[in-house]
Amino acid sequence: MSRGLKVLYVENDEALLGLLGQSIRLHPKVDQLVTARNSSEALEVAESNRFDAALLDVSLGPSSLTGVELALELRAKNEHLGIVLLSQHISAGYLNSLPDQFGYGWSAIQKSATLSFDYLVDVLENTAKGKTVVDPNTSIGVEDNANLSAKLTKRQHQVIALAATGLDATEIAKHLNLASVSVRQELSKCYKVLIPNPKPGTDLRTAAVLKYLRDTRSGLD
């Protein structure tokens, strides 16, 4: 398409919504990103916006439609909307297990600490064109499954937890009464613990925060 993508991103974890949403919003292929925390918010914004693709967490909490149910509602309003389902628990045959309505322009990718934003936006772009993409990395490795956050020191837990709220090193230093250089050193150590074998091009800060959130919260599925 000649213009950039218009994307709807729905995620019930606000920290992840802000972190991943900001990275997608800044991508050069994306013209507009609108976020929602549940199915009600998503359906409301869909009334006044026409999106090219929707990125939907499969599990959106007990008071919301599931990502799959929401996808069907959104698709009923916009038959050309590309749907990308995002979950920690997507298997290789996930799309094949869904109802017959899942054909044109449906994709599924693994929620992972090492998820490449370029790859994610490419999936959104191709799905918006009617293609189907199933993430080849559907099997979770031992490192990705392991609770690596348990290896962090108390200070490192404090630093990465504040980083997960969006604070930079200078702001974290003020909160913890530390020098900025000390915070940067602790962040570097966190990256090595949480993302021991990063793929080329991995944004270490974002990947480490995603891994930390998944290790320490039960809602990131």
From TrEMBL:
Q: What GO terms are given for molecular function?
A: DNA binding
Q: Which PROSITE patterns match?
A: RESPONSE_REGULATORY
Q: Which InterPro entries match?
A: CheY-like_superfamily, Sig_transdc_resp-reg_C-effctor, Sig_transdc_resp-reg_receiver, WalR-like, WH-like_DNA-bd_sf
Q: Which residues form a coiled coil?
A: none
Q: Which residues carry this modification: 4-aspartylphosphate?
A: 57
What UniProt keywords are attached to this protein's entry?
DNA-binding, Phosphoprotein
User: Which ranges carry the Response regulatory domain?
Assistant: 6-124
Q: Which GO terms describe its biological process?
A: phosphorelay signal transduction system; regulation of DNA-templated transcription
Designated name of the protein: Response regulator containing a CheY-like receiver domain and an HTH DNA-binding domain
Q: In which organism is this protein found? A: Rhodoluna lacicola
